[in-house]
Amino acid sequence: MDRLRQSLLDTPITEKDGYQYFVHPISDGVPMLEPELLREITVRIIQEVDLEGVDKIVTPAAMGIHISTAVSLSTDIPVAIIRKRSYGLDGEVSLSQVTGYSESEMYINDVEAGDRVLVLDDVLSTGGTMTAILDALSEMGAEVADVLAVIKKVGPNELDDTDYEVKTLINIDVVDGVVEIVDEDGDF
Fold it and tell me: What is the span of the domain harbouring residue 173?
């Protein structure tokens, strides 16, 4: 995970309303995402997650899409994208996403009771989005085989008070405008 580690150490930081954001190819699409970085992440995900009997990869739009697509192309497991727009299709399920900095509705399509799913996302920060997704999937009767977020920003997290376990590839913090690697091996 040398490329991921170095890319995080080199990432720019921006501040909005007192919150320090790291701007990274995996979480923001800028700076440009190099194929070597995406390949390194994809290979590690496939090595670390439970893919046995997984029917679908489930990911929130937008920044989980490229990661999930790369994993899908390598495993032939289809991707169901959780969107911020309702399409009104049969079986669509709404969930409320609340993070430390936003609140919105999201919609799950193409996941049914009994589906065994892998949930993939780019970043785990406050845990609000992931908690809402996992709660919704559970209520729908889907079986969550595994959950992975590529990058975890350490700190208080809504998942801390749940039974959900989320694997991460690398854990970071942003201190005084600089990314610090907290755990190079993430939560494994």
Answer: 2-80+111-183
